[in-house]
Amino acid sequence: EKGGFEHFMLKEIFEQPTVLQDVMRGRVRIEEGQVHLGGIEDYLDRLKLSSRVIICACGTSWHAGLIGEYLIEEFARIPVEVDYASEFRYRNPVITKDDVVIVISQSGETADTLAALRLAREKGALVMGICNVVGSTIARETLCGIYTHAGPEVGVASTKAFTAQVTVLYLLALTLSKGRTMSRDEIKLYLKDLGKVPQKVASILEHNDLILDIANSYKDARNFLYLGRGYNFPVALEGALKLKEISYIHAEGYPAAEMKHGPIALIDEDMPVIFIATRDNSYAKVLSNIEEVRSRKGKVIAIANEGDEEITRLADHVIYIPAASGPVTPLLSVIPLQLLAYHIATLRGCNVDRPRNLAKSVTVE
Ligand code: F6R
């Protein structure tokens, strides 16, 4: 059942090229610039007229929500807020009938997310779900929704469900843009970028041995810092969460530019820092953050784009990923971080599929 892999988590990481194709199957016609999401069809007009989108989720699904914020704002120009479901429901949020509340949940059973959706419904918002488990409580109680179709996720640490959620959010953002902020030709270009992702993910998985070597060098570290900007900021949070969940090493993710507002004080020769330094509009700034870490003797592991020679001068280790446009980058940059967390945890003898104190679905508050 683990398909020849030692753990479900590793199997699920390696399934991602297929899963991402499954998410798009029957929904995307690249050449025509068409996206068809059957589960929200009846509500599309209302969705496009919404004055605001509020995304509620927990954990990894909340990280996907942050990427969703960047995608929906960039593509569809609708303002988006992202909230932890547990905070949203207890702070007497302002919700109106013109709002759309999107709840994201792999299991579809998370107690706080379910309660957030019930609250939003009571206040008259249009409530949409992005769930993986078909027929789950959240999927049933939302008015409309999109399934991620990632297949059963057994490993407690979410991997393929996360990339499937981000892919769904990308398709949703394009759907909301159609006829409003984007022409069919523009949508086609963005779909082309997305269409290349499964193959690119497969090529990153080929770096598995290199990532195992890097894991060997850092498995005894006590702390890790993960830094990224823009679309890679939520990926930094997700990389840190994966590591702490399964290896029990303390890790924090930050937007790279926030480093100098506090975390830089932590840097010394015992502190590995993972930089997601892809070539986008903040690349130069991230490079100067790398210099700052180096000058304080911190160890640097960089996720960079293929062909980037400059980075080898600055980083102790580089994991290359194929070049891609900003909006699809998180689907690529998260893959090495999943593998790094997996290998560090297994090298430390941890049970990666069933980490201590964690449950696959959190049905208590
Ligand atoms: C992280 C992880 C948790 C879940 C969170 C939400 O690897 O598994 O942080 O993402 O408990 O779960 P769902 O998505 O089922 O609502």
TrEMBL record:
Active site per the UniProt annotation: K360
GO molecular function terms listed in the Swiss-Prot or TrEMBL record: carbohydrate derivative binding; glutamine-fructose-6-phosphate transaminase (isomerizing) activity
EC number: 2.6.1.16
Localisation per UniProt entry: Cytoplasm
Main location: cytoplasm
Catalysed reactions listed for this entry: D-fructose 6-phosphate + L-glutamine = D-glucosamine 6-phosphate + L-glutamate
Keywords: Aminotransferase, Cytoplasm, Glutamine amidotransferase, Repeat, Transferase
Keyword Transcription: no
Transferase as UniProt keyword: yes
CC terms in the record's Gene Ontology section: cytosol
Residue intervals of the SIS domain: 43-182, 214-355
Protein's GO biological process: amino sugar biosynthetic process; carbohydrate metabolic process; fructose 6-phosphate metabolic process; protein N-linked glycosylation; UDP-N-acetylglucosamine metabolic process
Function description: Catalyzes the first step in hexosamine metabolism, converting fructose-6P into glucosamine-6P using glutamine as a nitrogen source.
Assembly and binders: Homodimer.
Record-given protein name: Glutamine--fructose-6-phosphate aminotransferase [isomerizing]
Organism encoding this protein: Prosthecochloris marina
Primary gene name: glmS
